[in-house]
Amino acid sequence: MQALLNTHDIVCIQEHWLYSFETHILNTLASPTHEAFTKCVDDNDPISPLQRPRGMRGVAVLWHRRLSHLVTVHPDGSDRVCVITIKTTSDRDLCVVTVYMPSRGLSDSEREFQAMLTELEEILLKFQVSHHIILAGDWNASLLLNRDCHRDSVFKTFCSTHGLETDADMGDQPTYERGIHKSQNRLCPLHGLWSAAQPGRVERGAY
User: Fold this and answer.
1) Are 135 and 99 in contact (CB under 8 A)?
2) Residue span of the structural domain in which 24 resides
3) Which residues have C-beta within 8 Å of that of residue 159, sequence separation ≥ 6?
4) Residue 100 lies in a domain
5) For residue range 79-100, what is the model confidence (pLDDT) as tens digits?
6) What distance in Å separates the CA atoms of residue 188 and residue 170, rounded to the nearest whole number?
7) What would the pLDDT profile of 51-73 be if each residue is shown by its tens digit?
8) HEC string of 68-90?
9) What is the CATH number of the domain that holds 126?
10) What is the pTM of this model?
11) Tally of domains within the chain
12) Residue 205 domain flag
């Protein structure tokens, strides 16, 4: 992570696996150059350090301290979503959203996946008029693969409905591959989505 912080002003993290009593770990790693906005799976019901199970989920956004006077942290979204806005000199400010979508293969994962898309839709509707929006995350779905997968179809429809496009330099190959239970699933976390309905984009390294 230190290599990322050395070369990037804004870093989005998914699956940090920390609980609320451990967020100081990420803050320590981020300092002295960056600050962090972190959400954990137990934010609404903190667990005791004496009862810590295996880590799970968790998202965060880190930004360089020279941007701190421009950054506003927003409470929108569940523990799977972090939202910040950054004041810019353009006609619209910047909204950065990082998300960790539900994994595949769990009994209730498809319902949770759809619920998360609804949550993201509410965020898009709230900020799309006043902000350029960048979505970065582990989507646990693919826009690239041609397979008979309901989740991929739902995700593609969501992106099309809201005019979302992938970063031009993302490439045309899945960036993540793993096996779930007995099946092999090639998943594509898409980084740098922004709303095509909003003109302009933030070039890498601009902030």
Assistant:
1) yes
2) 2-195
3) 143, 165, 193
4) yes
5) 999 999 999 988 889 999 999 9
6) 10
7) 888 888 999 999 999 999 999 99
8) HHHEEEECCCCCCEEEEEECCCC
9) 3.60.10.10
10) 0.80
11) 1
12) no
